[in-house]
Design goal:
Low-confidence stretches: none
Number of helices: 10
Order of helices and strands: HHHHHHHHHH
Shape: globular
Radius of gyration: 17 Å
Oligomer: single chain
Distance between the termini: 47 Å
Structural class: mainly alpha
Length: 177
């Protein structure tokens, strides 16, 4: 079961490095992985779910940027990876997958923010949820603009900016009433 799931993810990763995300269809993934349609759907709801699984470790690092003690090396590793796969990252952040990616990161941030305010009776869950979405979209907008810049800053500088702005927004959201 785990081996099959891994084969599907690896096949998808190969395809997305070779072609645009939009051009990849589930039958392409099935052919590449050598699995049937029902097997694919046993593991993944759709192509977007596969993308989210495939990149989950990167999205987790971005979501953790809201924490003052996030790992700066991990965040720099993610931004360096985006630089290395610039064409693919630009494609993903400009296309139909953008909203799924943003929602996944927002969900992760939401959990962190809710944990931070769990002991505060004055916290507003609606503001936390909206704020988590705001942070996720802001992070991805920053990465997308950086990927399109003619002379972008270094991955380390981008990681630092992502961290500083994410923490600042999270602090403001957590203290909002």
């Amino acid at each position: 079961m785990t081996r099959t799931r891994g084969a599907i993810v690896e096949s998808f990763n190969h395809l997305v490095r070779e072609r645009s995300y939009r051009s990849i269809q589930v039958p392409d993934i099935l052919d590449e992985a050598g699995v049937g349609r029902s097997t694919f759907y046993e593991h993944f709801k759709n192509k977007d779910a596969l993308l989210l699984q495939s990149a989950s470790r990167f999205f987790e690092v971005l979501a953790n940027a809201v924490n003052a003690d996030c790992d700066p090396c991990a965040l720099t590793h993610v931004t360096s990876h985006f630089a290395q796969v610039r064409k693919m990252a630009k494609d993903l952040l400009a296309g139909p997958a953008f909203e799924s990616i943003a929602n996944d990161i927002a969900s992760r941030i939401r959990k962190t923010l809710r944990t931070r305010v769990a002991n505060s009776p004055s916290s507003n869950v609606v503001l936390i949820d909206l704020g988590a979405t705001q942070i996720a979209y802001a992070q991805l907008a920053l990465v997308r603009e950086w990927l399109h810049a003619l002379e972008p800053c270094s991955p380390g500088q981008l990681a630092s900016l992502l961290h500083q702005t994410s923490v600042a927004m999270a602090d403001a959201i957590v203290s909002a009433k």
